[in-house]
Amino acid sequence: MFSSLPFTLSFFSIMVFGTIFSISSSHWFGIWVGLEINLIGFLPLLVYQKSMSESESAVKYFITQAMGSSFLMFGSLMSYGLLFTWEVAASSWILGLILILAGLMTKTGIFPFHFWLPSVMAGLPRMSCLMLATWQKIAPLFLMTTFLDSNLTYWLFMLFCIFSAGSSIIGGIGGMNQTQLRALIAYSSIGHLGWMLFAVLHSSWAMKTYLGIYITISVCIFLSLWYANVGLMGAMKTPVTNILGLGSTLIMFLSLGGLPPMLGFISKWVVIVTSTKSMSWIFLLLLICGSLMSLFYYLSLFFSLFLVVFKNKKLLFKNYTKKSLIVSLSLLLNVFGGLFLLTESFLYSV
Fold it and tell me: Transmembrane stretches, by residue range (predicted)?
């Protein structure tokens, strides 16, 4: 098991320390150092089973992150050569900012630097997929909020909008014909990254809210997959007999797609409300179209697994254990969390 390995805690601590160090730094050199520490701690966790697919994914991930680090360092060096300072707030040269933005987007997997994420996630086990989909996004997204402190030019604002809309569309189109859950989760992650990047332009609070809800739903989904014993390679062919785990997984996927009034709808609603003050209606419409395509393949997965369950004659409710309690609480959080937040916001506005 992943948690029983002797080096897991040490490398996991290094990964967490690198993220915290990167977010806490006030200059680009410290940010680069923190991201490299995070990479050093995360890579050994990718290859703990020593399989060929994990090794291939780890090499792809390392090469991509090295390319992102080179973009980040090159952009910060260009700003340093112009202003003789590493400070984040002092970075004002447009070309340097674009290179830094390209490095952060490459590390995260945002369009047009999304090419590596589906192939890397397709070869990883469940726990590594969860960390790649959640924790590894925190530092780059928080660092993108520093662009709000600088004076965003019109062209930089348009780049943010184009990249965010492209991520949502690619995430919707790419997941249409996927039969593997890992590849589907990867394209879903690309689509949600577009929403987070669009939220960065308007409010750091909206981005943090969206990221927090996305991480919560992703953790609930992987807990349900673990409880239902559904493989990430091909859920369509897996003989599942656990109704609670499978049903909660399907409902949480719908919540991740943003189906109202579930918890995932709240994050998209927050971004829409905060972005209505700007004039970027076209990009917001593209984001919604990409989200609708993502919801389409979530519903396709829902009906496919629903039919598989009813063809299986050995449908069981497993004994009430701690695992089932955790899954039940996660299910209640996703179903009624959105209703609770909507009610609270309505009462607050009144």
Answer: 7-23, 29-49, 61-86, 92-117, 154-173, 185-205, 211-228, 240-259, 279-310, 331-348
- Alpha carbon of 136 to those of 15, 39, 43, 181, 302: distances in Å? 9, 9, 11, 19, 28
Q: 63 pLDDT exceeds 70?
A: yes
Q: CB 167: neighbour CB atoms within 10 A?
A: 31
- Tens of pLDDT, residue by residue over 100-132, are 888 999 999 998 898 899 989 988 888 888 899
Question: Has residue 127 been placed in a domain?
Answer: no
Do 102 and 168 fall into the same domain? Answer: no
**Domain annotation covers residue 145:** no
pLDDT digits (tens, 9 = 90+) for 173-199: 988 877 778 888 899 999 999 999 999
CA distance 317 to 284: 43
| Helix, strand or coil, per DSSP, at residue 234 | coil
For residues 230 and 326, state if they share a domain: yes
Number of independent structural domains in the chain: 2
273 and 214 in one domain?
Answer: yes
Among 193-202, 322-331, 339-348, the range of highest mean pLDDT: 193-202
Which residues neighbour 349 within 8 Å (Cβ) at sequence distance 6 or greater? none
Phi, psi values for residue 238, rounded to 5°: -85, 125
Q: Residue 32: CB partners within 8 Å, gap ≥ 6?
A: 69, 72, 73, 76
Give the DSSP per-residue string, 291-304. Answer: HHHHHHHHHHHHHH
- Phi first, then psi, for residue 177 (nearest 5°) are -105, 25
Give me the residue label for tokens 């400070």: 87
Joined together, the tokens standing for residue 320 give 């009430």
Whether 112 and 166 map to the same domain: the answer is: no
- Domain that includes residue 203, residue range: 152-349
DSSP string spanning 41-106? HHHHHHTTT--HHHHHHHHHHHHHHHHHHHHHHHHHHHHHHHHS--BSTT---HHHHHHHHHHHHH
